[in-house]
Design a protein that fits this description.
The protein has 3 helices and 5 strands. Helix 2 packs across helix 3.
């Protein structure tokens, strides 16, 4: 004696149709996983460790501390002007996710010698065109130190 539900063909069985629908959706979504992963990995591949290192050197020279703890780093070699951003802490016991201090650096070009054009620590910026003499002087000091290395 057969159960009435089992006498149905698979295509008529609602559970089978649900399974096939989910299975098709899984195959459909898997087609897009690799391109999505590649697209999200592209920004990481565009990073420039050289720009990040140059900005890190500006940070160390500005703070006059060789052991500044670095959090997140980002670099933008494809932008005009190219630049880098680094979160940091002067304390070594701070978690990288809790670092609020940030340095932004802008350079003339994305390859060495980079040519520092501007840097900002927190909300204070230093550049050649600064009206404040002390900020302009600090910028010139950083340029001189970068040119020595």
């Amino acid at each position: 004696m057969k159960i009435a539900a089992s006498s149905r063909s698979r295509e008529q069985n609602p559970l089978w149709r649900l399974y096939c629908g989910l299975h098709k959706r899984e195959r459909f979504s898997m087609k897009y996983v690799l391109p999505i992963l590649l697209a999200t990995a592209m920004p990481a591949m565009a990073q420039s460790p050289q720009l990040e290192q140059a900005c890190h050197m500006v940070l160390q020279n500005f703070l006059m501390k060789p052991d500044v703890k670095i959090g997140q780093t980002q670099s933008f070699p494809e932008l005009t002007p190219p630049g880098a951003r680094i979160s940091f802490s002067e304390r070594q016991d701070v978690d990288a996710t809790k670092m609020d201090d940030v340095i932004d650096c802008e350079f003339q070009k994305a390859t060495a010698p980079f040519g520092l054009t501007k840097f900002c620590i927190s909300s204070t910026c230093y550049s050649q065109g600064e009206r404040a003499d002390d900020r302009r002087r600090r910028f010139e000091e950083m340029q001189a130190l970068m040119n020595r290395k």
